[in-house]
Specification:
Length: 431
């Protein structure tokens, strides 16, 4: 079927075949024909007469009744929907209308009566309307197209707000899987938006975060060329803390799948995250620590982080923030210190004092038992990986007696960690 200026144009050969089938179907019914069937027969005969009169032409056109035309496109409505004003428009054309973006997201009501009338009119003329995808998916596709092709930044942003609103809901996020180009559109818009368009970039990153809640969409994002690289690039976006937060939060969601952690690590993300460890904002530091922790559950990423200077950065910045950030950093260092390459790096850091002495002194300033327990766990891991360090630990204990004090006065967890260190030192000293 071809639509031109409100007309339906059909190939004559196909038309003849359809008309024969329809006429045989109508006239082959036993008994009297109903008025409806007589009307259908009349329409068929009129059409055949027109074919006879136009036998030298290879197409035939039908004038679409005005009531079946979309007021916006002036073409036959494929999926008529009812507006609150009482008017009916075609769903796709309505979604392209600039007026719609100023309305809050709400269900679009299908006009079943008009749809039935159009269907009957098309059937009587053997016109087949090519079915489209699920109406909700079509709504989504149209909104995504408008984000990409809107004539101004303002309109792009308004459509992005609309998509961000609907992607809070799981049934809408499924539409990203049904629409193969949706993630590609997001990548293209984010890539093309300059630094002057930070509001649009921020909204696109919010959409990314929404859709990456679902595992199947995570995979779609990871498989889309340029998506991970763009997200990584936005982790270092100037002074805009919200852009960084959205980008890091999205990468953190993606990193819940082990198959994606390697991809993120390969994009140079540790370089930017380590810079964030020295940021003034507590949220920036906490976001960076959280993502590093999630990514460093695989050996390749641990090596990348070490090579980028993560251990030195943690030791340098660990005292520069609030208690909660300090606790997070020590938790990350404790987790990483299970790796011998990490403990070797700690022991070789060039500080004003010996790294073991630094850890001992930091216990005194740690504000919570949890943080003290993590520092003790790091000391224990160092001792397990480098048994020659027992002399240094023993010397510190002889001078300050911190471990013995914590063994007696600490919480159960702290006492346990202090006991483990003292027992291992005694065993190494004896043997």
């Amino acid at each position: 079927m071809d639509e031109r200026d409100g007309e339906i144009i059909m190939k004559v050969v196909d038309w003849k075949k359809r008309m024969r089938e329809r006429l045989q179907d109508v006239l082959g019914v036993e008994g009297d024909l109903s008025l409806d069937k007589l009307d259908k027969t009349r329409d068929i005969l009129v059409a055949l007469k027109r074919l006879k009169l136009n036998k030298d032409e290879d197409t035939i056109s039908f004038e679409v009744p005005e009531r079946f035309k979309c007021p916006l496109s002036k073409k036959l409505m494929r999926d008529p929907v009812l507006l609150s004003t009482g008017l009916t428009d075609d769903r796709e054309e309505l979604l392209k209308s600039e007026d719609l973006i100023h309305t809050p997201p709400s269900p679009i009501i299908r006009n079943q009566r008009m749809r039935g009338m159009i269907s009957t009119w098309c059937q009587n003329r053997a016109i087949e309307i090519i079915p489209r995808c699920n109406p909700e998916t079509q709504d989504f596709i149209c909104m995504m197209q408008m984000i990409s092709s809107a004539s101004s930044l303002k309109k792009q942003l308004e459509y992005a707000v609309k998509v961000e609103n609907v992607t809070h809901f799981s049934h809408s996020r499924v539409k990203f899987l049904e629409s193969e180009d949706s993630v590609v559109v997001l990548v293209r818009v984010l890539s093309e938006a300059s630094t002057k368009h930070e509001d649009l970039r921020e909204k696109i990153l919010e959409i990314f975060w929404n859709i990456c809640i679902d595992n199947e969409t995570k995979k779609r994002v990871a498989e889309t060329p340029g998506a991970i690289e763009l997200l990584v690039d936005n982790t270092r976006h100037g002074n805009n803390s919200m852009l960084r937060t959205h980008a890091i939060s999205t990468l953190e969601l993606l990193s819940k799948l082990d198959s994606i952690k390697e991809i993120i690590g390969q994009c140079g993300v540790f370089h930017y995250l380590i810079d964030q460890l020295g940021a003034h904002g507590e949220w920036d530091r906490a976001d960076a620590v959280g993502l590093i922790r999630d990514l460093c559950t695989i050996p390749n990423n641990i090596k990348r982080a070490i090579d980028e200077g993560l251990i030195e950065a943690l030791v340098e910045y660990i005292d520069g923030g609030g208690e909660s950030t300090m606790s997070l950093m020590f938790y990350l260092l404790e987790t990483l210190s299970l790796d011998i390459n990490v403990t070797r790096r700690i022991c070789n850091i060039n500080l004003d004092v010996n790294p073991i002495q630094w850890l001992f002194s930091t216990i005194k300033y740690a504000g919570t038992p949890t943080t003290r327990g993590r520092i003790l766990a790091i000391l224990y891991n160092i001792l397990c990986n480098h048994d020659d360090m027992w002399r240094m630990i023993n010397s510190m204990e002889m001078s300050y007696g911190k471990l013995s004090l914590l063994l007696q006065e600490g919480t159960p967890e702290v006492s346990l960690n202090a006991s483990r260190i003292l027992e291992l030192v005694a065993r190494l000293k004896a043997g």
